[in-house]
Design goal:
alpha+beta, Signal recognition particle alu RNA binding heterodimer, srp9/1, three-stranded antiparallel beta sheet, 1 helix, globular
Length: about 50
């Protein structure tokens, strides 16, 4: 799922009780992303393109 601000989205989901799997981190392939598990155990990734 794309977002304009990965860090802010992470904070909102975590504050709402989301189960964090990975905190926001810059990836070498050009995105900043984080991950959560939903209530069914599915992995949900939030991604933000990095500025070049």
């Amino acid at each position: 799922m794309a977002t304009e601000d990965c860090d802010a989205a992470f904070e909102r989901v975590a504050a709402a009780g989301g189960e964090a799997v990975q905190e926001p981190v810059d990836q070498p392939y050009g995105v900043r992303d984080c991950a959560f598990c939903d209530l069914s155990g599915n992995l949900v990734r939030l991604t933000q393109p990095l500025q070049r």
